[in-house]
Amino acid sequence: xxxxxxxxxxxxxxxxxxxxxxxxxxxxxxxxxxxxxxxxxxxxxxxxxxxxxxxxxxxxxxxxxxxxxxxxxxxxxxxxxxxxxxxxxxxxxxxxxxxxxxxxxxxxxxxxxxxxxxxxxxxxxxxxxxxxxxxxxxxxxxxxxxxxxxxxxxxxxxxxxxxxxxxxxxxxxxxxxxxxxxxxxxxxxxxxxxxxxxxxxxxxxxxxxxxxxxxxxxxxxxxxxxxxxxxxxxxxxxxxxxxxxxxxxxxxxxxxxxxxxxxxxxxxxxxxxxxxxxxxxxxxxxxxxxxxxxxxxxxxxxxxxxxxxxxxxxxxxxxxxxxxxxxxxxxxxxxxxxxxxxxxxxxxxxxxxxxxxxxxxxxxxxxxxxxxxxxxxxxxxxxxxxxxxxxxxxxxxxxxxxxxxxxxxxxxxxxxxxxxxxxxxxxxxxxxxxxxxx
Length: 438
Prior knowledge:
The chain is α/β, with parallel strands linked by helices. It is built from 14 helices and 22 strands.
């Protein structure tokens, strides 16, 4: 597929028109012209326009507020999100992230309907024994390589079926996956002004029907950063909660004059909890000299080494449990992919676990106040926000806590997209639909 980086000129043209008008009306000599505005960072792909049938469909905006714990809205006074809950559907006990409750695995699970063991994105950083290579969310080359990703993300699903999609940040959205990229996307820039992200989403929805995306993602990391640095109960985290809530308010206000049938779904990838204790180094219990490691993940060079490490780690600490990969409890859905490693170490609480300390002479890693990544079925603090509101959502409905793989079939149903085999099930969230959209 040929990719064209197209510099959107709409916003710059408006600025230029305003500047020209002011200059023509001025009675003072012209000043030297200011430097031109930087190019718009939106990348547009030469995808086919929306088919006539897809142009008649509704719209879904999927917003992620990274690490927005299930109870933050009520606890910290997120008034716009609480208003969405009152007029739409919500999960008072939260949405259950996939294990491990980390950013990349869960964002990608949400948009594929597959647990991490089936997408292949099993952690923020992991090793692939077959490729003999490491994937890391901080490695841009790996992140942009679509061959790392399994499943069909919602934007690719839409594009395959003649419906345009757009992504204002989302793990995986910059790579070509299942033969597709969103019609509009951006390279991740955590410093991109928050309010301007909303402006761009509204601008996409103002495009002509043939070019207008029907599925859009939007992402904010503010709450995650504050939670890590200060902890989930700190005033700085509450401020971050209210800030991203203000962005939701801007988005809702921007949607109203468009008079489009837009369903707004606001989620988080995981929650947050205060970490406990000091670093726990697994190599202080087991010989890992014949292993490749990535964080707490262990990759033996031979099965005999995996068996030996399992025996050495078993029962050595109450801060973790250890399993051979095939024996990981089924409820975790974390036993069928070599990228998970073997043996598999599962923390029993909010503990800082890693394979080993940095080499001698290098500074130790900073322990963050707030942490996540833990078993969400035994640690409710890992549960994430879920709220949905729009023409296809029943008002005032609540649902029990549910696995986040079930978001995918919900959105596909609203958009009228056909899906293949996934782990999620439509029946879990079917009760929140006002009527069958298609």
